[in-house]
User: Fold this.
Amino acid sequence: MRLIAFAALLAALPGGALAQTPAAVEQPLLHTVVGQVEGERMRADITALVAFGTRHTMSETVSETRGIGAARRWTEREFRVISQTCGGCLEIVLPSETITGPRIPAPTEVVNVVAIQRGRSAEAGGDPNRVIIISGHIDSRVTDVMNFTADAPGANDDASGVAAVLEAARVLSQHRFDATLVYAVLSGEEQGLFGGRILADYARAQGWVVEANLNNDIVGNSEGQSGIRDTTRVRVFSEGTKTVETAAQAERRRYNGGEVDSSSRNLARYVDGIAERYLANFDVDMIYRTDRFGRGGDQVEMLRAGFPAVRISEGAENYDRQHQDLRTENGVEYGDTIEGVDFDYLAQVARLNIATMAALANAPMVPSGVRIEGAVKPDTTLTWSAVPGAAGYRVWWRSTTVPQWTHSRSAGTATTLVLQGIPIDDYFFGVSAISDDDYESPVVFPGPAGAFVSVGDPAAPAT
Ligand SMILES: [Zn+2]
Assistant:
C-alpha cells in the first residue's frame, strides 16, 4: 500500500468515523536490524549451495561435495558458526521422516535443518512458547522432477529463501526477544511439500503457539519473464478463509464476513505495514490467494496445521529460470543459475522478513477470544482476553472494501471498548495488543475466522 493511497482513503471516509494516526511508533531497533542485512553474505550462501551440484531430495547423501546430504550438513555448520557469535543462542534440530510417495518411489529420509533462538523466559517477562518462523527450502529440481542426478543449481528456487533464513539468523541472533524465533531450512518441497509438513508436525509436537510463518520461496530475481526489471515490489500471498475452518464456522463467516480476514491475511497486512514504515522504495503487494495460481509451497502445510502463514515471492517471476534443465535453446538460456539472482533485491526481501520478525517478537501476542456485538444498536462493542505482557490494546476498523486497517482507537488497558456511533454493519473490526515500549501485534479479526490460534482455542466459540 502506498502512503498516498492510504491518505486518499482516509480523506474519503464518511463522517462519524474519526480518522486517527496509526498507533505504532518508529522503533529504532527495526531500523537497526534493517541496516545490518548484507546482500554479499547471501551471495556467499547461494554460491555455496549451488556448488553442491544438485540438492534434489533423492540425490546422494554420502558425498561431502555433491547432493542434498552435503548441502544439509553445510547449512547445519552455518547455523553453528552463527550460534558461536551469540554465545550459543541457537539450538539446532534436524526433524526428519522417511517418506515414500508418488514423487519419492524409494523410501527416502527427508531432513529439515532448523535453528531455534529461544525467547526470554516467562520469569524474565518473555513467552518462549510463542514462535515466529522464517522458512525456505533447500531442495532443487530440473525439468523432470524425478531426475536426481542432473545439475540443479536452484539458485533462486530456493537457495534465495535459504539465504534469507540464514541472514535472518545472523542479524536477529545478535538481539534478544520475548518470543522464540525459528530459522527453518526445509527439504522435500519439490517432491510434495514434505518439509513443510515435517515442520508443522514438529511445531505441534513441541506445543508451539505459532504466531507467524514467513515462507520465502523464489525471492531473489528482479527481472520478470517480460524482461522488465522491478526492484521495488514483493508479493505476499495469504489465504482468505482458513484451511482449518469448520463447516459451522464457514456458515457463520459467509453471513457475517471474515472472508478477507484470516489470521494469515492479517499477518500479510502487518508485513505490508512494516515495508511501508521501514523500507525505502520497497512495497508489499498483498495477493489475496494462498499461493500462485495452481501452485504450492511449504506454507500450505503450515496452514493445514492451523498456523498463520504467508508465502513471500518476488514481484515478477521468470519461468525460464525455474525447474529447467540447464541449456540454451534458440538463444534463450534456461536454468536456475546464480546469474539470475539480484542480491540487492534479495537483501530487501530479507530486510522485510527480519524487521517483521523483530517487530512481532517484541510485541505481545495477538489478543485471543475476540468478540464483537452491536446488532440493532448504534454502537459497536469489542471484547477480548487479556494478553500476558500487554500494556494496552487498540481497536481498528476499516470499510469492508478496503485492503488495510485505516481507523483505530486506543482501549488503554481495558479488555473491552465501545465505539460509540460506529455501526457494526458498515465496517470490519479488529484489535491489536501493544507492549510498554509501543510494539504492536497484528490486528486480529473477531471469532474463529480471524483467531491466530485455530486449534483448541478455548476462547474461540464453536460457531
Ligand atoms: Zn520453490
Q: What stands out?
A: Residues 137, 157-158, 189, 217-218 surround zinc ion (CB under 6 Å).
